[in-house]
Amino acid sequence: LVSRENTTKRSVVRVAGVPIGGDHMTVIAGPCAVETPEQTLEAALMARRAGASLLRGGAYKPRTSPYAFQGLGEAGLKILADVRDETGLPIVTEVVDAGDVELVASYADMLQIGTRNMQNFALLQAAGEAGRPVLLKRGMSATIEEWLMAAEYIAQRGNLDIVLCERGIRTFEKATRNTLDISAVPVAQALSHLPVVVDPSHSGGKRDLVLPLSRAAVAVGADGIIVDVHPSPETALCDGPQALTGSDLDELAHLAATLPTLV
Ligand code: PEP
Questions:
Q1: Whose CA is nearest to atom 3 of ligand 1?
Q2: Backbone angles phi, psi at 11, to 5 degrees
């Protein structure tokens, strides 16, 4: 269903009217985690200023440590919905449990399935039935074929509005959080008709790498980028070191403005 074998056309996925794929390069930006109404609104305004047309933000955070901030749950979804009303930016947010899909879908414009859940098949199937587009991140140790098969689980349930997201893979390299597999973008685009976006924040794990990796995503022909921004990264409850802020945002806005296909 997601293969290019039976179609020459590449898909465009619309998230509350915002296209991902086709001639567009879509910027999705926002805080890694929803923390407070003020922080989320401020991050959303920053995202919009930087050229984003969709707002990201996690209310359910799948953290490596059980002692780390796990997200605000439904209270976070409500904050996101309020910020959408205020800014007009549709929401992309993660769901980590099949049992929560209906609830998250009642607030979200797009469901995100994170790297740790790429092969959570019950979750994929529930997302396939939720009536919302799905952003499917690549498992950090998954092959491209496994990633496409995960997308197939969603598609099989009748939902072809799927966007693939390359977010870095595990390698021996320790200088970055994960290794951005930039070659996965054209490979996945050749094998599948689905749009492919890049997450330069979770792959590099460092603020200084986000702009260079974003440029790499543009150069390789990605259909979009998904970027963490935060009004005060030093106090962020999740992944502050990779969040863009201040003048970095101007650079992202500059990148967005200078590329004719970047919306
Ligand atoms: C995220 O985007 O908030 C996230 C947790 O990403 P990943 O699943 O790629 O680690």
A1: 32
A2: -80, 150
